[in-house]
Amino acid sequence: MVSSSRMLGLSFGLIVANVATLSAFIPQQNLFLSRRSGQKLAYEINATATSGSSEGLANEARTVVKAFNEPPVKIQSRLEEIQQTIERGENLTQDYCDTTLGLCVAAEQWECVIDVLEQMQKQQMTQERSTFRMCLQQCFEVGNGASALEILQAMEQALIEPQPDDIGLVAAAMCRNNRKESGWWKRALDLLLKNPSPDVPIDAYDAVLACLVDERNWKESIKLLRRLEQPPKNKKRMLPKPTLATYREVIECCVAGNQVEQGVQILDKMKKRGIKPTVYTFEIVISGLARKLQWRRALQLLDTMDEYGVNKTVPIYNTLISACARGKEIGVAKSLLARMKKEGIWPSIITYNSLISSCASAGRWKDAMNLFDQCNRDPHVEPDIYTYTNVIRACSKGKMTERAFTLHDTVLEKNIPLDSYFYAAVIEVAANARQWKRALELLDEMEEKGVPPSDVVYSLTIKACGNGGKWQSALNLLEKMRSKGMRINLITYNAAIAALAKAAKRSAKYPTGRPWRPQEPDSGKICFWVRAIELLDQMKKDNIKPDGFSFSSAISCCGAEGRWQEALALIDLMKKGGPRTQPNRVAFTAAIDACGRSGEHMHALWLFRNMTNNGISADRVAWNTLFHGFRVANKPDLAYELWGEMRKAANTTDRITAMPDHQKPTPDIITVTDVIATLAKSENQVDQDRVDEVFAEAVNRGIIFGSHLDSVWEVDLSGLSLPVARAACRFVVNRTRQKVEDEGEDVKDLHFITGVGAAFGQGQGRKGHASTTADKSSKSQSLRDYVQKEVLLGDLNIKSTIPKLAQGTVTIEREVLAKWIERRQ
DNA sequence: TTAGGGTTAG
Fold first, then answer.
1. Integer distance in angstroms from CA A784 to C1' B8?
2. What average pLDDT does this structure show over A260-272?
3. Do A503 and A590 fall into the same domain?
4. Considering only CA atoms, which of A463, A542, A544, A540 is closest in space to residue A497?
5. pTM reported for the whole predicted model
């Protein structure tokens, strides 16, 4: 009787706690809840809450209603079973009652708790230690830490001393609450430490550690491990010993907390303590290292696994291979493939896919193809959609357009399940091959096959349209996305603006060396710059912040249409934006170009200075763009001055060798071409002399003639523009004179290769120049004629002949050259 | 437990 009333006391306590929660919502009501009144109350709360009070109250009311729902079927049937047993006059077993009670407590079905307790009382059954234990067990099963804690309190009230197992159960139950509500681990740990015993199951501590993994709290986990490892000095052990699982949790915690190195150290510690890690333990650390691309360190662990005698697995190798692959260590990755095969661990399709993917992204398409062949020969694996996607990407890099399309057909034939990644790869091939029609067809095919196009697919299709000059289709695709209710993201918008920029440039047909005057917006022609700005507005409406890409493409639309003022305004807009839209090098360069092409060389120069003053160093493209502006505006003095400045920058910039080539502020053939063209146009003799000076410097730097400077008897002029070719001829004949006079070399035939078809339209001249459309062979012929007539006969007054067979080559015969040298003396 | 994507400037 006594213990029965104690148990009733416990259940009252729990119910009172619940009423307290409820009365927080309805303070005026103070109720003892019978099942019926509870339901009624819940109904009332729900009614008042949904009839217009706050959202928060409504939600809480719903929770309460849920709490008063009918007990789960499992409990109900158990209650019925108890009822029937008593009706039949049979005896209930303790265990059955304990379990039922536990289920009720865990489910917070307090009415049922009372029912069971009443039945137990009728049966003269008391609440044993087993009753409490079962309640705790059930609370643990469903992860009800709060009820478990209350049971623990009830035990104390009932003067039943909790055992280490009970403490462990409560703590573990509490930890299960941590996912929903952070902080439970701390309470659980407090409980464990307040009841120290080496007999508390280590699982309870492991449960705390698992919470710490979720919270990436590596510091706390290491602290706890230390506590478990070593009892305080000269004292006997008060906490359970850490096990393999404990160490694993701590390691996982370190890795989750981005402290992989800590994880490795703990792995070492395990060795000292004689605990053998499992494959899984290694996997956590290896994948952690892999994520940080520390493949070397990960490789060491592979050897450690051998030392421990832990079997390596395919996923371990795959993780490592992909780490190497992402770290651009394709050689190492391939050697790992060989190593695993040698060890009898057969590569899976994932292994091949990782490797092929890395080759594809590194542009090593030959390696990718090789691996694809290996994969096809390997009877253990079957290429899947990943494989084909990556091989197609490799083809794309290798410009093997047709091969990629054939692979696409193969996938369809093989009925391999398709996805949007696959189509993205194929469409990218079409985009790079300027096959906009095909890209659109592929998009249709996707829809036909029931593969929903992703935003990436749309971006790439838009890029394909842009590359094909189909800006209208690009904009249509944007509309299509919108009508489908897809959110158009930054990159997709950027692809569309880029499409406009490309179309603008294509239709611009810049004049060389002359200012370009704008079309007025209302002149009936399409204004790309207007559309680009419209898109920027659209982005704003969609709450998407344009970035450097968006702006620089819009600026180059302006540049192509002579809208230099609008370009300046966009730069200004960028400056006013957030840190992510601050004008970068590309945006500045595009604006410099816009001004420069419009003959606004001072604005171009101002932008250039403004850029460097803002801490953005000029790269080669920026310099060249400014030079081009000076050329358009016919400013030989400024061009020469800037040339000097650029040489200085090229000589003084630190760590220049560490820069990617295009970032270096060193002059290239384009720089030299623009500087020389600008100087050569001047009537001034000083400028004419500067042409030769600049040219000599260009040769010194290896910009012209490359490493073939020594073979002055055969000089390649192909790819040089007319003014540069003229300077080149002067330079070469003077050089030969030096060779003969100063160095005593014999005079030989001097050949100028002017190239067949290679002189104009490709190397020389900008995209969009009129020369690209001209017949190449006739152009190269003109360089040949130019060298012959204008330079040799005109400038240098050397009479030479054009051999019949060696088309494109102008030869000065040795006798002619010898006479010329003599005359010069 | 392990594998995949897109945008810019001379």
1. 37
2. 91
3. yes
4. A463
5. 0.75
